[in-house]
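Hey, quick one: can you model this chain's 3D structure?
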Amino acid sequence: MGVPDAMRAVRITQHGGPEVLEDTEVAVPAPQAGEVLVRVGAVALNNTDLWTREGAYGRPDDPKALSGWRGPIDFPRIQGADVAGRVAAVGTGVTGSLVGRRVVVDPAIYDATGPDAHPVGLMGSERDGGYAQYVTAPVERVHDVTESPLTDDQLATLPTAYGTALGMIERGRLRTGETALVSGASGGVGLALVQIARARGARVLAVSSGSKIDGVRAAGAHDVIDRAEDIPAQVRSAAPEGIDVVLDVVAGELVGEGLPLLREGGRWVIAGALGGYDVTFDVRRLYLHNTQVIGSSMHTPEHFGILMDLARRAEVQPVVAATFPLDRAAAAQRELSRREHVGKIVMHP
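Sure thing. Here's the predicted structure for all 349 residues.
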């Protein structure tokens, strides 16, 4: 089937609330040299979508400045980092055998070409993303998962949430037999952390609350810490020997309260600030115990390759909480911001 000239897309032309999401018709992008055109089968939502739309990332010189993921947004911008679909066309220099293959797109824009490159941009923020019927991507960022038993919806949940989770686990050097504490465990990244840490052979303690606790336990948590109660006291009771690695997407007060829970040589990995970015802790707990606080932003190309191998073998089973059509993107983002779900929200262009 040929590629049409026009497509539906949801984009933002300014920062603001869900009302700035614009459902419109735009030209189908043409793949440039070294790129492929992907027909989007499913696109998953992330907190990154909300923060980019709101301009909530700040800048190093001005934490309160309106900014996209890594700087000013070049409006208009089609949102959406997480894409699963099929290759519809290729640009010059790309083999035509990719056409028709089912793929997942690595949404990161890297600072170098090597396996340990750092992400410095993101599809849906620094380039157009998957809130659309078609999206382009560099061929080296497109991973063939045709043989995976996972659905398009499940595959679409992987790039940002599971990529971020795998990056945290790799940078935190989590090993078999260690004890991990996962904050925000019912969210997309949190649930991915629980699943991957469990698959690694770690003992997993997860922080959640209310009706979400059963879903977090079903994802593989050995013990669930109730966020509504005294978290440090519960952790000390569940893991009296201490925690080896904290995998934290919440930050805020949890860092200062929780740092004494680390064992000698423990690692606290932070990849989010849902609980607040202004953090205070007793630095003596850091240097006297040889512990580390590690920042982790998404994944490296090597990490993403490991994730795609897990997807091909279905060694993780992503949880899809809800699906929406593309023209209800604002409703989908509102649902995401309520944080009442367990798993990921997916849209169908």
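One thing worth noting: DSSP finds ten helices and 18 strands in the chain.
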